[in-house]
Specification:
There is one protein chain. By secondary structure, the chain is an alpha+beta fold. Helices cover 42% and strands 20% of the residues. It has 13 helices and 12 strands. The chain has a 7-stranded antiparallel β-sheet with strand order 1-3-4-11-6-9-12, sandwiched between helices. It has a 5-stranded antiparallel β-sheet with strand order 2-5-10-7-8. The longest helix has 21 residues.
Length: 344
């Protein structure tokens, strides 16, 4: 996803989307409440903004942002007290490091409330009807990346299929750890702000890669192990058996009855286990495994025909396979294959 693709969809809590045409850093500073609210409503139309009265002290609201390769870094200091309601779903995952104050996100569909306190980090997805409440004088740093790019990066860096939505629960972080993700993002902001236009794109690409490596494997916990959950006693053995059977039979015409027999339970019970632990149906998880296998084969140039690949992975409709692949990875499989062959 390019910087232009972010325009109109990037959901920043308390900040403003000011995606520049040239991809350089951007920002704003305002003190008057009317100016803050006016800028937010004009520049981030996905949110219906309102100010919370009763601020103890007037300070300048400072926003700065820089694009990486296909992600976006934002830093907000001394936010005014704000509330907002999302107008539509956004295709982004946002990772928020709260420094001071408090950010609360109310998920309308799940009926949950996430409260991010100082020195804590959590991932956020925004859907229509979600509500945000930002405490007066809050400050934070955030990394925003599209679900498609997160999926591609996760699979490329870890070799693990992206089976379900990647969720980082509320986690404590240290903002003075030189090896931590927070300091990596802060250094990225400093370097990008001081770099020339000629090297900024290269720096952005390098920092995005480094940040995602740290996110997936180092800071603040090993998210790959958390995501896999394969060795966790909390995951039912029947579900793990079904997933192992899926991985071993990606090219076989499996049904949910086949999976249930191998797992040793009824199809209804297997359906419940997957929805509870993976957030998807068994066939939905199997589809993700097959898409990941297809992506790996296409990216490595081991494919001559997209139609043959789709059929071999039990996608009976190649057009449907192409649509699913594009929804997952952002590009048509034929285009990815063309890139792969051109690099040989």
């Amino acid at each position: 996803m390019s910087v232009d693709d972010f325009r109109g969809s990037l959901a920043i809590l308390g900040g403003v989307v000011l995606c520049p045409e040239n991809g350089s850093m951007t920002g704003f500073q305002a003190t008057a409440n009317d100016a803050i609210l006016g800028d937010l409503q004009a520049l981030e139309p996905n949110w219906r903004w309102s100010l919370v009265s009763g601020a103890d002290e007037v300070r300048p609201f400072i926003y700065s942002g820089q694009p990486l390769q296909s992600a976006w870094l934002t830093r907000v200091r001394h936010s005014a007290g704000l509330q907002a309601v999302a107008r539509r779903d956004t295709p982004l995952v946002s990772f928020f490091f709260v420094l001071t104050g408090n950010i609360q996100i109310s998920d309308r569909r799940a009926r949950t409330l996430l409260s991010i306190l100082p020195n804590h980090l959590a991932s956020v997805r925004t859907a229509a009807g979600d509500r945000i409440s930002i405490q007066d004088q809050s400050s934070w740093l955030a990394l925003h990346i599209s679900e498609q790019d997160l999926r591609r990066s996760f699979e490329d860096l870890t070799g693990t299929p992206y089976m379900q939505e990647f969720v980082l629960p509320l986690t404590h972080y240290s903002n003075d750890s030189p090896q931590g993700l927070y300091q990596t993002l802060r250094q990225a902001q400093r370097d990008l702000a001081s770099s020339s236009e000629e090297v900024r794109s290269m720096l952005g690409k390098a920092y995005q890669q480094l940040a995602l490596v740290k996110l997936f494997s180092n800071a603040p916990r090993n998210l790959v192990a958390t995501y896999r959950q394969s060795n966790s006693g909390d995951v039912p053995a029947r579900l793990l058996k079904a997933e192992a059977f899926m991985r071993a039979n990606l090219t076989a015409p499996l049904t949910i009855e086949d999976l249930a027999v191998f797992a040793g339970c009824s199809p209804r019970e297997l359906q419940r286990l997957f929805l509870t632990n993976r957030g998807r149906t068994p066939m939905g998880v199997l589809c993700n495994y097959r898409l990941a296998a297809a992506h790996g084969a296409i990216k490595e140039g081991r494919v001559q025909s997209i139609t043959d690949l789709a059929l071999s992975l039990q996608f009976s409709n190649p057009g449907r396979f192409s649509a699913l692949y594009k929804a997952a990875y952002g590009l048509k499989p034929s285009l990815v294959l063309r890139f792969a062959h051109s690099e040989e």
